[in-house]
Amino acid sequence: MPSNINLNSNNIFNSFPDYTLEQSGLAANQGINKIKISDGLSDTVELNVKKPFSKAKKILFGSTIASTVLSVGVVSMILAKGVHGSSFKKLAKLKEHLVKEIQETSISSTKDLANKTALYAKKGTKKTIDGLQATSNFTAIKDWLCDKALRANKATAKFADGTKNLFKKIVDKTLGKKYNKVEINVKDLTSLLKHYNISNLSMLDDAQKMKSITIKGTTKPLAEWLEVLSSQTQRLETSYDKGFSLGARKLRSQKRSQLLSGIKDKIEEKFFKNKGLLKASNYKTYVTEDVSSGAQKELKTDILRAKKQVTNNIGNIHDNIKGQISKFSESINPEDKFSVDLLHTLKQQLENFKSCSGSTEEKTRKEIARQITGCIDDAYAVIKNNSRYSRVQQEEIIKNLDSIKTSLLSTNSGSKGALEEIMTILKGLNAAELGAEGKKIISDAEFKEFSKLSSKISKGLEKATDLEMGEYFLKQAELEVGSAATDVFSVLFPVAAGTYAVAKGDDKDEKISAVLTTCLPLVGTFATFVYGTTKMLSGAKNLIFSGVSGIVLSKLGSYCDKLYKKYKAEGSVVKVAKDEYDNFMTDITPKYFMETQDEK
Asked: Is the pLDDT of residue 47 over 70?
């Protein structure tokens, strides 16, 4: 080979004309770089190579569970609810449990180191939980400011009213479903009782009708017991309709709206006058609960009075009053002998109240209730003049004693509801025999069916009324402040973020990838969080609900993105589907069947 060959003159690339990047039809902004390769030659070859994604774009388009669910969970809580007592019930229950345990050990001796430690734990736990509850005040302030801004314009005011009414319909529907289930069970029970009375009365002869039956110490002819059963059945039907039908709930809703009409003014007074935003005392409890507590108490009394006509279950009454006594125990000074003695008296009387039985059960319960309210009335003056407590502490103790008294009086705790009266009669008839052959007036199978329906009514009404007095009431109060509009905006925020992510895509494929891997999980998680809020899910449950939805949507989006990219490469939907099916079947086939004979 000749040693002097001019490679440059014989370079075949010299025969091609020179083109610029623009002339070649490739836009300069398409992310194309020129890479020079010399390889020892005097001329260079320029290759067009596409830029790799920057680190920022990888994070944007490759966002997964960590970037989606975790950030959404934190931001959601800030934007939507805060951490108040009715949201984080587990936190409130933990506090109640600790206080109870601490109180029982600390009232005996405050000099013991363990008891002193318990007292410090009690105070620390209470302050921590109160501080968490107070974080919701920032949400209340945000809602108030947003509503104030929207009310400045007719069009935006219409938007605020529209969103509030929409959310009210959603929470009303949620509460309505609870009551509708109870109503169905009430109708089933009353229908069975009416059928039973008619069929049994027609089959009885005069001697059987006059047979004496003793139930709870009271003796009456069977015919009279059946008449009482009939009247209590009618009472059950009428009482439920009067207290919890759709019409009754609408009347209560009108009253609720009237009672909550001034709530925004109270929040304005608390935070936006006299430098309220700077006062530390305004951030100790959840303001929306505080300013609406009077209305909540009034409506609670109405609901409990209506409920006790239907079912006045002693167990539920006992648990309710026990909770009120627990709050009282939390507010007293363990070194104050009078308060500690009063606490012991209330606890003992409550247990006596629960254990009453026999023919004098109702009379005894009324007497115990009278004794408890008498103790509370006597305690008012002593507490007001007790130097161990500040004025604020005195007001807190008296407020807790008022709650105990209200619970006793509002439930008319000495008497039974229609449901309990019915079950008492049915139990007595189930135990009695008719005729020499020993046949029961009500068979075990019939009594079991009645008991099952009775239990469903009692538990269902308990849950429905608890929801109406608690989360439902608070949600209505928050809607009055202006939470609906800010909840909507909290969904629009991730929508805007997702739209931006899509817009930043360089081509159609990148935009589709952004939608599937970023927009779908982000927007979906926020949407489910707001949905959970309107369905009155507690804060902890709602975060779990929205977090799980974020995980599912993130996995789904990533999987769909993978399929789309595969389709773009293969160009056949059928082939992609077949490959996915084969992969799925391979994954679920036990390893044993995939081994070859030699491997076996």
From this structure: no
Question: Tens of pLDDT along 193-232?
Answer: 988 776 676 677 888 888 888 888 789 998 899 899 999 9
Instruction: Find where tokens 């929470």 sit.
Output: 171
* Residues forming beta bridges with residue 220, ordered by sequence position: 213
Please report the sign of the dihedral spanned by the C-alpha atoms of residue 15, residue 17, residue 18, residue 19: negative
pLDDT of residue 182: 96
Burial class (CB in 10 A: 0-12, 13-18, 19+), 21: middle
The structure's pTM equals 0.66
Reference 121, options 133, 103, 135, 144; nearest CA is 103
Among residues 312, 303, 306, 316, which one has the least CA distance to residue 419? 312
Predicted confidence at residue 240, as pLDDT, reads 96
Q: How far apart are CA 143 and CA 12, in angstroms?
A: 74
- Buried-state track 542-562, b at ≥16 Cβ within 10 A, e below 16: bbebbbebbbebbeebbebbe
Whole-angstrom distance, CA of residue 347 vs CA of residue 100:
12
Report DSSP state, residue 272: S
**What is the pLDDT, as a whole number, of residue 95?**
56
CA atoms within 13 A on the CB side of 335: 10
Cβ(83)–Cβ(139) below 8 Å: no
Cβ atoms within 10 Å of 435's Cβ, excluding its own:
10
